[in-house]
Input
Amino acid sequence: MAAHTFPLVSSIEAFIIIILLLLAVPDICARLKRPALLYTIYLIVGLAIGPFLTKDINALIYQVGRFGFILVLFEIGLEIDLPPVKRLIRPAKLSMKWIAIQFPIVLGMARWIGLSWSEAVLASAALNACSVSMTFLAWQHFPAPNQERKMDLLLWMVTVEIVAIVILTAGYTLLSYGIGIRFFMHLAEIAILVIVISLFADRLTSFLGKRLISTVHLKGHYIALFIFLISALGARIGLSESKTAFFLGLFISRSTHEGIALSHHLRPIGQNLLIPIFFVSLGASVPAALLTSSIGIYAIATAAVLFLLRDILHRTIARSGCERRTFLILCPNLTVVALAAQTMIEYGSKPDYITWIILTGLIMSIGALPFLPARKSDASPAPAPGATAEKPAPAPAARAATEPPAI
Output
């Protein structure tokens, strides 16, 4: 009998599944008062449907998801807004202690599983990170002895994320050439990009803000077009679209209050469409056979080691001054892990290594989020991921939005 050649899931059926997810998952997370679970669920669904997709359909979803990847970087940049250096001294010390102990341990585990030195550095940076966008709402309702300690905790989260992003921005060069002349030249190119974007960020944001005021419909489309255009220009001069998008978001977050409008209006096409497709495509890229292999067991072991190590660190040399479970707020790292995994996919790393880092980040995020404060049902609309609460004075992280964030 001839082998059955029809795909178990066609391209239209795959997108029907994704659209159903976009309709149902936000409501489910809202009922659970756990909006940060959104992207973890999308990733899990990608893992589940991946075996039923042909290579062509998987490639199609992946290509659409690349646009979501660019928007992920833009939103991560948008959520970061650092205060004066003096205010960062204590959180930076905590971050250095936090990273200095964990980084070599994760590096050793990555090397033991077979990753090259460059891949291991990239994976260690991502797994030691914290996704501020996933944990901001939990931080908002997190108990602390006083406001200063609570703000130190947020700055600690932001600083840990920034360290990882700095490494990840040069990730492809690191994987391709290692730490050498090319790597440092690429860092110099990134510095030039930062300077150029910083010179024009205020004008660009002001121009886009005026366009948003005069536009009645499809505001999110204008913003997405703006981001993609700038990212394409960055690619034309030899820098990747994703890095350009990140630094664009970073400087827009620091330029004017217009960053609020951008995040709010981008949500329908970004957080509610393209970014979820990216996480589904990332999950679908993982071979099903690896989920139940030794790689899956190793991911569980890695996450367990990190949970235990972070609990010990928080009770000893990296004390936040808050309750014991505080270390959990720095554990969800799925968005940053997704960036590292995407870089490794583009480079052509072995599926085993990509699966390990994705599963480890997924386990850490799912393992921590249920034990963090949930969104209060009677709470007023919360700021966007990475934003501070309604603030009388400048504070770290992105500007407040006018409605609850998607994650």
Q: What stands out?
A: The chain has one domain: 36-371. The mean pLDDT is 80. Residues 36-371 form a domain with the Na+/H+ antiporter like fold fold (CATH 1.20.1530.10).
